[in-house]
Amino acid sequence: MDGASWLVRLEAKENVVLFGYWFGSCPTAVAVRSCYCSRSLLGVADGLSGFPVGGLKGCRKKGGFGDDSIKNNTVRREDVGVGFLAIIVAIGFVEYFSVAHKTHETIIVQDLHQRKNSEASGGYSMTNNQAEHLAQRKPFAAHWPLEAVNVALEKGDVFKSMFRVNAHNRVEAYCKIDGLPVDVLISGFHSQNRAVEGDIVAIKIEPFSSWTKMKGSTPIRLPIKEESSVNNSIYGEDFVQELIRPSSSSYIDENNHPIACSSGERREVVPLVEKLCTLMNSFPSKRPTGRVVSIIEMSPRRKTIVGFLRIKPWLSNMEICKKDLKKSKFLLLSPKRDYIQLISTDPKFPKLMVALRSLPNSIMKRLEDCDVTLEMELIAAEIVEWSEENESPLAHVIHNFGRGGKVESQISAILFQNSINSEFPPEAISCIPHVPWKIPEEEFQHRRDLRNLCMFTIDPASASDLDDALSVERLPNGNYRVGVHIADVSYFVTPNTALDEEAQIRSTSVYLQHYKLPMLPPLLSEKLGSLSPGIERLAFSVIWDINLDGEVLDRWIGRTIVQSCCKLAYEHAQDIIDGTFNFEGLQLHGEFTWSDVVISVQNLDEISKVLKKNRYRDGALSLENPKIDLLFDKDGIPYDMVYSGRNKSDFLVEEFMLLANTTAAQVITRAYPSSALLRRHPEPNLSKLRDLESFCSKHSLQLNASTSGELHQSLERLRHELKDDSAFFHVLMNYATKSMQLATYFCSGDVIDNGKNWDHYALAVPIYAHFTSPLRRYADIIVHRTLAATLDVEDRLDSNEKRLVKKCFTGLCYNKEVVESFNAQKALADAAVKYDVPGTRALVDVAAHCNERKLASRNVKDAIDKLYMWLLLRNKEVFLSEARVMGLGPRFMSVFVNKLAMERRIYYDEVEGLTVEWLDVTSTLVLNYHPNSRSYKKGSTSKLRTIEEVAMLTFPHNMVSEPDTSKDADIEPAVFPLVLHILSTIPVAIHPIGGDDGPIDIGARLYMSSYFC
User: Fold this and answer.
1) Exposure check for the chain: N or C terminus, fewer CB within 10 A?
2) Quick one: DSSP state of residue 490?
3) pTM for the structure as a whole
4) Phi, psi torsion values for 542, nearest 5 degrees
5) Residues near 12 by beta carbon (within 8 Å), at least 6 away in sequence
6) pLDDT by residue (tens digit) across 974-993?
7) 828, 830, 833, 837: CA torsion to nearest 10
8) Residue 645's closest CA among 630, 625, 631?
9) Which residues take part in binding Mg(2+) (predicted)?
10) Residues 93 and 196 in one domain
């Protein structure tokens, strides 16, 4: 058939509507076939005289063509009026069902852009308005091409950012833009335009009239530069639009894509970010909104979806389709039959559609056998396509992990979801020297021999990958010479090898409850590279001369050969500090005595205290949240949990690692200012920080969050004030932690240092890097290579130049003139090639990948911890705890569960027999339960939830007759009516959610007595 064809398929729960337009060499004919609730076929078709309708034979129900029309394969002239009416009625049906029944709409538009302006000879030409109307029926807008995005990014008309979805409400997503104090809201699926969690997107800021009011936030006032400030009087909309309007050099083509301006045109002087800051300062309660115009880089998470297939609804729809086919002569194209839905375990991801033809044979066979147990199994899938015509992405099933209620299946799914591999390829392992291995003789010639120093490692008792060792000497002048000695892993992991490639792909070790998945093969990470006691090892050493005030007087950095005399656990070091050390069972190597070790640990402890005091004096921040450790039996099953805290020995090691990392950052940035791999910690989210201040103010607590140092001092003061209410302080720390942003790796040449952009907020240092853990972090290996190149250059300059330039990179004094000399720059360039120091562009990619893998590692740890907590709760009949109310509203409350040190939500809206009274003025919630009352959900025929989903009801006679000697015995149930305010203490019952029937989670319910119900 000549012309274009459009097919609109509208799916409701039990509805299928087919709507087709045919355009040929004659004017329009329309056919509508609708299968509605009664599933009877309603055919509606019309056209103009002479139009061929050979494809419409059989459409002979009420409202369709007459028999003579079908017979002659033409449409009669008198059907014209009915035709246009049919179009209106059909479109009305589509719109009505999509709104009233929340339908899923799929629009397939073929050759729209190619044909909308074409005109067949003697035929019909669709107008632009008609074409645009049909194009608008697509759920999503077309993405801008990459060239257009690059032009817009260069001119500042769009912004590049990572797309992050609200796990509690997928309609809301956020993008962070450097320079803005709050994230940009991307609200609604249309504005999100097919972006998923973790995508790198280009977003365009919406007009000010579309900005939303920030929810429950304290208005933000920003410091505005004087030259860019404006009058803070009342602004008109014209002024607002002018303020954020793109520059006059911004042009768009016919497809609304930006095009480059001519060479003589220039964008406005004031950048859009500064304009937005000015506008936000004038309207502090407004949050900017935006929309996704293109996906620049797809998230790796698209290839690692885990979820459950919806088997039962599909089988039910199959029965419906079979009945319909018996009644109808038409074979309707129904996604209900050809596709099956997959629900991701991650609420940040949309529902996915899987084509049956793409299913693995094993799954398809069980589907054909109507095996409903398949719905209980975790499925691995990947998103293969999401076109602008489809509301849901198309996915392809990869693997079946097994039952969701089994720990093994869950662990496999978690590792897959985060792209964590356990096995090393043979090519990578072949790069490691065979054992036994000895340090080559030539290494002794150009490394400093430190085997005569009393040094030791302090690590967790179970640690086998020992990155760092410590040493200390008391100098004749009373000062200390402290050494941090780090395993020289870069000696073994040489650039451009299979081992280096595998290490870069992994980027970090992943630590689980019972074991770890190392970044490097165990032969290297636990043997050849590990600073095991009594064995000669290669190292990078940083040695400082430090006085009693913690001031660094001198330092030396270089490659060394070391030998640890013993392996101490944190508990051993703490016993030494406390004076209760018992060295029985421990091995000591070399010529040193236990007295030497004890004195060294005590000296290091004294120095670390001074260093720590100085750090906090200079503005450092510590957020020590309570941590829960699970206790496991011999079979690896959790049976209990305990609070765990940090000892002085933890802080001892931490102080010297921080000092070493800061020193390494200073050195490599001097040598390679545009290609140093650094780590920064941005300032807190200003909106959430203001929420913290407002929370404290409402409860008569004084908090100063103007700087990291002031915030730390305020929290320490509040810790003392609330020493009798530790739960309250934990809630406060939870608020403070929420305001913090993640620390990230970055390339120094990619971020302009304006005095703030390189800062590490929590550590209060202007420059920082990771150097001390090369066995488990790839970023540290890059820093080691850069440091090796720097030392090589420094040695060459020291041998060729005057004494004055000694240690021009590693010393305390920085001679910029010498460093920028021709000889130094040439030597640095040669060394960068020799040691394969990445350039700026390559390092940007390395930093981005390290950030992504670091986050994945953290996600795995959190997910595994939650899995074992879920398993512990599943094995307990009841788990009760007190909780503090952190947030209240008409639909749900947020509570901090003391025993679990975690925040949970309790939803109480639309519950049978439960009345909810929310007093907004006083932020008071009143819940009352009337078991015999009948409630109805307004505007819906769906059932209300039961009270058991919200509250665990206990009966008084059970409490009396069954004495409880467990830890839950001191938790008393609350009674209705329940009146709550912020920080109210309430009893809650914790329970496991999901497993075989959905994603695992930990839920909380109110613990209530039924006595007054």
Assistant:
1) N
2) G
3) 0.81
4) -120, 120
5) 97, 101, 102, 103, 104
6) 999 999 999 999 999 999 99
7) -10
8) 625
9) 459, 468
10) no
Give the integer Cα–Cα distance in Å for 982 and 980: 7
Instruction: Please provide the size of the chain in residues.
Output: 1013
Q: How far apart are CA 299 and CA 195, in angstroms?
A: 9
Confidence of residue 934 (pLDDT cuts 50, 70, 90): low
CA distance 305 to 346: 8
pLDDT confidence bin for 513, thresholds 50/70/90: confident
CA distance 972 to 589: 57
Residue 311 and residue 290 share a domain: no
Contact 202, 158 (CB under 8 A): yes
Q: Are residues 899 and 969 in the same domain?
A: yes
Mean pLDDT of 164-172: 95
Tokens of 950: 């919200």
**Closest by CA position to 815, among listed 676, 665, 671:** 671
Convert 827-836 to b/e letters by CB count within 10 Å (16 or more is b): bbeebbeebb
Asked whether residue 237 is assigned to any structural domain, the reply reads yes
Question: Do 629 and 541 reside in the same domain of the chain?
Answer: yes
Residue 869 lies in a domain: no
Q: pLDDT tens-digit profile of 609-649?
A: 999 999 999 999 999 888 889 999 998 899 999 988 888 89
Query: Beta-carbon neighbour count of residue 203 at 10 Å?
Result: 26
452, HSE (Cβ side, Cα atoms, 13 Å):
3
End-to-end CA distance of the chain: 70
Q: Is residue 747 part of a domain?
A: no
CA distance 156 to 274: 11
**Tokens 């893998």 sit at which residue?**
853
> 661 near 769, Cβ under 8 Å?
yes
Residues 732 and 663 in one domain: no
Q: Are residues 496 and 432 in the same domain?
A: yes
**Same domain, residue pair 713 and 771:** no
How many structural domains comprise the chain?
Answer: 6
Identity of the residue numbered 355: A
* Average pLDDT rounded to a whole number, residues 878-883: 94
Bridge-partner residues for 22, per DSSP?
5, 29
Within a domain: 868: no
CB of 383 within 8 A of CB of 393? yes
Range of the domain at 189: 146-298
Gyration radius from the chain CA atoms? 34
Which domain-ending residue is among 269, 298, 327?
Answer: 298
Q: Which residue has the tokens 């008792």?
A: 461
251-259: long-range contacts at Cβ-Cβ below 8 A with a sequence spacing of 24 or more?
A: 253/148, 255/142, 257/144, 257/145, 257/148, 258/144, 258/148, 258/151, 258/152, 258/155, 258/157, 258/158, 259/148, 259/151
**Rounded distance between C-alpha atoms, residue 279 and residue 403, angstroms:** 53
The encoded tokens of residue 611 equal: 């260093």
The last residue of a domain, from among 114, 135, 156? 135
Determine which helix (DSSP H) or strand (DSSP E) holds 988, and give its type and residue range: strand 985-995
For the stretch 318-337, pLDDT in tens is 776 666 655 555 444 454 56
Give φ, ψ of 775 to 5 degrees: -75, -20
Please spell the DSSP secondary structure of 438-449, one letter per residue: ---HHHHHHSEE
Closest CA to 818 of 830, 832, 803: 803
Residue 468 annotated as lining a ligand binding site: yes
Q: Burial, 121: exposed, middle or buried (Cβ in 10 Å; 0-12, 13-18, 19+)?
A: exposed
**Residue environment code for 27-65, b if the CB has 16+ CB neighbours within 10 A, otherwise e:** bbbbbbbbbeeeeebbbbbbbbeebbbeebeebbbebbb
> Would you give the distance in Å from CA 930 to the centre of its chain?
42
pLDDT, one tens digit per residue, over 345-360 is 999 999 999 999 999 9
SS3 588: coil
If residue 858 lies in a helix (H) or strand (E), which one and from where to where? helix 840-874
- Check the annotation: does 459 bind a ligand: yes
CATH of the domain at 335: 2.40.50.700
Nearest to 909 by CA among 889, 891, 923: 891
CA-CA-CA-CA torsion sign (86, 89, 94, 95): positive
64 and 179 housed in the same domain:
no
